[in-house]
Design goal:
Blueprint (H helix, E strand, L loop, with lengths): L1 H23 L7 H15 L1 H4 L8 H5 L18 H10 L14 H16 L18 H5 L10
Helix pairs in contact: 2-6, 5-6
Amino acid sequence: MLKSFLLFMAVVLLAFTSASVPAQDKGAGKSVPDMHAKAKKLYDLDCALCHGATGDGKTDLAKDMQLNLMDWTDPKALAGISDQAMFDAIRKGKGKMPPEDSSRAKDDEVKALVAYIRQLAKDHPTPEAAPDAQPATTPAAAPATAPATPPAPSR
């Protein structure tokens, strides 16, 4: 009888703890592609209207509201801004930008949105950052451009 009772209690305890784990750890099981897709959807719904589908900040609404938005496709635009500052601006709002309420996006989704916004610049590298933008010098061309000087006589 005691063994049956202990077995029953162990099963109940196991069922109780396994049922509570997913509720505490909802976002941890999401894969990176899932979080990226969720961030893109969130961006498309809440950000693209002003910031543009590509993140360049050149939209009719931004113009009408007289907003001077950063071009997030330029890697230099966000270089001096920390992820936490971006998170805070999204979560709390900034200027005419409304805050992203926690009922619409959880913290892990806002963090994924920050990563998505940073990715917009990586998808559009600047010409000077591209490896082919620098003219290549060949070793054969270098001596041809140097003036020919005779060797100094040795004594």
